[in-house]
Write a structure and sequence with these properties.
This is Tetratricopeptide repeat protein. The chain is mainly alpha-helical. Helix content is about 80%, strand content about 0%.
């Protein structure tokens, strides 16, 4: 719950920042000279890029949480079986062993979103965030594809 509150507070701060930057861009454009109009347009592009990135990140988190809830309802969430150091950090060898099993599951069932979800969690535990994100994106795509295929009228 704390992570959600932090996320929404930071998102709200970003939106306020986008509005402030956008207003400065409009003011620069209103100045009317070639240089200020060029700067104004450049400044206006930044909030749009930031808003797009914020939207994509929010959508990704929402979709990943939707899959987690569905997997939890099925009783298929991965069990935390990782060994931890006295400080609470995940032991690297333990994470590697779990990762190897999860990777083998995903290779055995490449069209199963559940195995890709569990692989994403294993990547995350192994501190490989880019691959964790790609595996979760694959899980989301496979899940949504399955939902589209099984819907009536298709």
């Amino acid at each position: 719950m704390r992570a959600k509150i932090t996320y929404f507070v930071l998102a709200a701060v970003l939106v306020v920042y986008f509005v402030l930057v956008g207003s400065r861009g409009v003011l620069l454009i209103r100045q009317g000279s070639v240089v200020t109009v060029a700067y104004g347009v450049a400044v206006l592009v930044m909030p749009f890029i930031g808003a797009w990135f914020l939207w994509q990140t929010t959508r990704f988190a929402r979709d990943a949480n939707r899959l987690a809830r569905e997997l939890e309802a099925e009783g298929g969430l991965p069990v935390d079986e990782l060994v931890r150091t006295p400080g609470g950090r995940i032991d690297r060898d333990s994470a590697d062993a779990v990762f190897a099993r999860r990777r083998a599951e995903a290779e055995a069932a490449p069209d199963d979103w559940r195995s890709w979800f569990r692989l994403a969690v294993a990547y995350h535990d192994a501190r490989d965030t880019p691959r964790a994100r790609k595996a979760m994106q694959r899980a989301i795509a496979l899940h949504d594809q399955r939902a589209v295929r099984s819907s009536p009228g298709r």
